[in-house]
Amino acid sequence: MSEADRSVDLDRDLDLDTPKGDRPRHSRTGNSVPEPRVASMFDSIAPVYDRINTIMTAGMDGRWRRAAVRAARLSPGDSALDVACGTGKLTAALAMAVGPVGRVVGLDLSTVMLDEARRAFGDLVQVEFRAGNALALPFEPRTFDAATIAFGLRNLASFEDGFRELARVLRPGGRVVCLELTMPRPRIAGRLYSAVFGRMAPVMGTAFGRRDAYSYLPDSLEGFPDAGELAETMRRVGLANVTVRRLALGAVALHVGEVG
Ligand SMILES: C[S@@+](CC[C@H](N)C(=O)[O-])C[C@H]1O[C@@H](n2cnc3c(N)ncnc32)[C@H](O)[C@@H]1O
User: With 90 as the cut, is the pLDDT of residue 188 above it?
Assistant: First the structure.
């Protein structure tokens, strides 16, 4: 069995839609924390972000990223935009898919995250890292073949506007790919997950001297739309053929939609 097949098998779809009864009555439509504060929190955790991420995900984040790259269906020579790129790991994985004659732009609000990304992947000729806001992308319509956002959507002031911007910069047939934490089902697993994540993130933050920023992470998941609601949000901005795949026993959702 190939690495790709094994990943599909382990992370098999558990369900596609959350039944209405399980949905929170009022999911948030955006993040209420002001953008400058979001940026400064990510600036402060940038130097330790990758280490904490690897510990908190037990190293599974690499597999999720590979699933996102496959979902983008890129070919050599294509172009892709990785929004909220952080330290650039997904940007670099997309760069492998488009090859040296392709183009990938990694964009982020946090300049310190971008410094880390440039330090790690600045030698990839097809990659450019740029400062910018996911809600006002500095690109013309129909610029890219795919646009990704990994664990960035829940930080945006409007989730719907975030998807709208991603769709705007894609050519017809281009794919929007979103990786994001989500509440696992059934409910009991979801409660256990929030209890563990809610406690673990601040503990990790304290261990690395970043308690405040790591308390924000579980808060940003509170009231976040479930996978079915997020799929609806994508359809509302005009994305077609929207699919949802749950990874990590349902704790991570991979949403994909196509520009018509
Ligand atoms: C949890 S990190 C994810 C980083 C990376 N995509 C990954 O998978 O490791 C979230 C990132 O979103 C960025 N971000 C938050 N709000 C943003 C916005 N409005 N525009 C662009 N980036 C934003 C943060 O600076 C941070 O780097």
Answer: no
